[in-house]
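This section describes the prediction task in plain terms. A model, or a person checking by hand, is given the sequence of a single protein chain and must write out its three-dimensional structure as a string of tokens. No templates, partner chains or ligands are provided. The sample shown here is typical of the held-out split.
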Amino acid sequence: VEARLAETASVKDFGAVGDGTSDDTNAIKAALESGCSSIYFPEGTYLVTTIYITGKSNIALIGVPGASVLKKQAGTYGPNVDGAVQGLIDFVSCSYITIDGLKIDGNKANAVPSSGNHLNGINFYLSNIIRTQNSEFVNCEFIGLNHQCCYDVWVTDNKFILCGWGGSNFSGGYFSTYGAARCVMSQNVYISIWAGIVSRSEE
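The expected answer:
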């Protein structure tokens, strides 16, 4: 039983508050790097800057659809240390990652990129075996859900709302599969979009 319990943890076990005011970046990062295979986000709004996760595998981020909100903290953001575009969470060289039931709020009215940069919702770089389902991506300045140099990707039953190039008249529910292979996208909803899918076709 103890071993089974060790597979699942709440972000609140690591100090996340989820009150829409506290900075929960470090607590959520600690949860995702804890070795637990399932990380639960109870109802609430979790403010973060950027959470950088590298070289991890077998992690499921589980929320309450529409009620577990991961929101970009207000501020001005430049590129990551490796020059890549920031997201709320950046997964690098990761595998077997699942996102289920989270709402990703890019807060583009208050979280803005520095000159010449952009901000995404969730980034996957050089990663594989990725599933995103039953989730929402809203108010992201550039790309809601971004996969670059990834393979074996499933994106199903998600909503993309008011994402796109901030400061213009275009809004987009972006799903970028630049350099990706073996991608399946189905039953996704795009609202107030400029381009629902970049580089691939909905199947």
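For orientation: The mean pLDDT is 85.
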